[in-house]
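Translate structure to sequence.
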């Protein structure tokens, strides 16, 4: 066979193969609010026939009407989901996937605040975690070489008890759960469990699914942590493994850099790193239901001290459940505030 003949045959086979290859496309919106119906369909770029298709979102299989499926998504968690279509054609099957992002149905409520009381706070404390328990504040501080856990007298700000971390660790969020104090570290992938009375370290635990350790709280059943992304993780109380997560979304976008946490009246309250605000998040769906703007609170503290605007921001939320009081402070802030959030 001549070279020209061989080349012609090769080109013919290549062109025929390209023309006969099926190319499937999933048709769906990139993002959609959960009060809307989601319609998904499958098509072939060359309009070649499709025998049937099986759709699913995550592990949930969907009932389709031919090559199209329409469903309500109000029961799904917010955030990124994967649409999968298994296409049947010419006695073959092909799997096609595409992401879709579920948003909140409405914009979050906006809150302002009023200051109820003001208390002294150790301005040397690089606050990473804050908790109120049986009349006292418990605080976790950060930065390598200055990380600690503390028991603090509310009215005076006096540190009553302190346990310093090894200088290798950057301390992060804390919570009190089942009469133990839990503390995260930032990038070491490890957390510590302390005796609440003596602050003696009793146990360590690792987190491997979540990226880092940022904020920590609990809902009475599970530990809840952030990792610097939009994800909020739920840890098994026995194994301390991350079992599942939600993603914090408004009706328009995800909210990243979730930091210090507090569980208040069935909702997750979260600081955002470098922002003087608090989010109120539904713990089931991830919906951001409220946003409290506390920028003027930082203006209040700036009357008394100079702060690094990019770092020494609001961070620390504690809740006195018995008296329905919310306390907030910031990194190196000299004051701790009892505030009331007011819906606009």
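Result:
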């Amino acid at each position: 066979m001549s070279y020209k003949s061989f080349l012609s045959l090769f080109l013919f086979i290549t062109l025929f193969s390209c023309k006969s290859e099926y190319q499937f496309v999933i048709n769906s919106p990139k993002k959609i609010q959960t009060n809307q119906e989601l319609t998904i369909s499958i098509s072939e770029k060359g309009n070649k026939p499709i025998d049937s298709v099986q759709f699913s979102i995550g592990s949930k299989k969907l009932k389709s009407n031919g090559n199209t499926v329409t469903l309500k998504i109000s029961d799904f968690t917010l955030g990124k989901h994967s649409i999968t279509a298994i296409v049947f054609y010419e006695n073959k099957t092909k799997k096609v996937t595409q992401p879709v992002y579920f948003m909140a149905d409405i914009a979050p409520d906006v809150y302002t605040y009023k200051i109820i009381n003001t208390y002294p706070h150790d301005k040397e404390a690089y606050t990473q975690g804050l908790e109120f328990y049986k009349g006292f504040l418990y605080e976790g501080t950060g930065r390598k070489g200055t990380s600690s856990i503390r028991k603090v007298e509310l009215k005076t700000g006096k540190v009553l008890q302190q346990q310093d971390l090894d200088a290798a660790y950057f301390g992060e969020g804390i919570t009190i759960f089942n009469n133990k104090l839990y503390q995260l570290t930032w990038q070491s992938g490890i957390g510590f469990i302390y005796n609440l009375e003596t602050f003696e370290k009793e146990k360590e635990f690792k987190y491997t699914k979540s990226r880092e350790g940022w904020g920590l709280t609990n809902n009475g059943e599970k530990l809840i942590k952030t990792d610097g992304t939009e994800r909020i993780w739920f840890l098994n109380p026995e194994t301390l493994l991350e079992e599942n997560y939600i993603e914090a979304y408004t009706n328009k976008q995800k909210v990243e850099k979730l930091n210090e946490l507090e569980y208040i009246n069935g909702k997750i309250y979260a600081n955002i790193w470098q922002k003087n605000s608090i989010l109120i998040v539904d713990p089931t769906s991830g919906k951001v239901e409220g946003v409290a703007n506390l920028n003027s609170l930082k203006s209040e503290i700036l009357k008394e001290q100079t702060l690094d605007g990019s770092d020494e921001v609001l961070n620390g939320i504690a809740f006195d459940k018995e008296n329905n009081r919310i306390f907030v402070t910031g990194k190196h802030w000299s004051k701790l505030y009892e505030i009331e959030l007011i819906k606009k």
